[in-house]
Design a protein that fits this description.
7-stranded mixed sheet; single chain
């Protein structure tokens, strides 16, 4: 089963429907939705949902135990949409999205790279992201002012092998670690840990001058467990 975000005129909807038992096509634009229903009606396995994807109740909408997602995402809300989908990571098999290249690079960035940040860690926690294809502006009509990319995020990510207990608390902790990228972890964690920040870093095997962008996802999990214990 597929869920399509931003189905538009239905070009991809029809392709997905030919290889799926059912497609739920989400489209916010009330001008496009009626035509989308008309175009996809002969297929017999497409349900058009006229709604904002951020307002959709996936639990109630998707009855299948597992599903995959495809979408050409608005650049300015890529991160909120991904986080909404990650809430259902246990049911999602894969997410394939066309997004701004700059955001795609951040999602797949490894530790130590300038682009590595909270979105990288969150994406790699829930999935195994891959930048599949770079797409020039000329591939779209009208052409955007930025390059795009197709990114595939296949579930599960490292969360399958790492236990952090409270997953929401862990991600909040990671967000704090990246609060100010120019600062060290010791400084970013001072609001949470106070004078214990150096002790926590030392217990996790990190130097007092360590920075968030240097840590792998598994190291963040270890640091979080130490911080929760001390």
């Amino acid at each position: 089963m597929w869920v399509e975000i931003g189905a538009g005129h239905g070009e991809m909807t029809s392709r997905l429907a030919r290889n799926a038992g059912k497609v739920i096509a989400i489209e916010l634009d009330h001008r496009l939705a009626p035509r989308l229903r008309e175009v996809t009606a002969p297929l017999g396995n497409v349900e058009v949902v006229e709604s904002d994807v951020l307002a959709v109740d996936f639990g109630a909408m998707v009855k299948a135990p597992n599903f995959s997602v495809y979408g050409n995402l608005p650049y300015y809300i890529t991160s909120p949409i991904l986080h909404r989908l990650f809430e259902h990571a246990d049911r999602i098999e894969a997410i394939h999205i066309v997004i701004q290249l700059e955001v795609a690079v951040r999602i797949v960035a490894p530790p130590g790279r300038r682009d590595y940040g909270y979105l990288s860690v969150a994406s790699q926690w829930f999935s195994r992201p891959e930048l599949v294809l770079r797409i020039p502006p000329g591939a779209f009509r009208p052409p955007p002012k930025v390059d795009s990319a197709l990114v595939s995020l296949r579930m599960p990510g490292v969360r399958k092998t790492l236990d952090v207990g409270d997953e929401t608390a862990f991600l909040d902790f990671v967000k704090e670690c990246f609060a100010q990228k120019r600062k060290t972890l010791r400084n970013n964690l001072r609001a949470r840990l106070g004078t214990r920040s150096e002790e926590v870093l030392r217990e996790a095997g990190l130097s007092a001058n360590a920075r968030a962008e240097q840590l792998s996802v598994s190291k963040f999990a270890e640091l979080f467990r130490v911080a929760e214990k001390i």
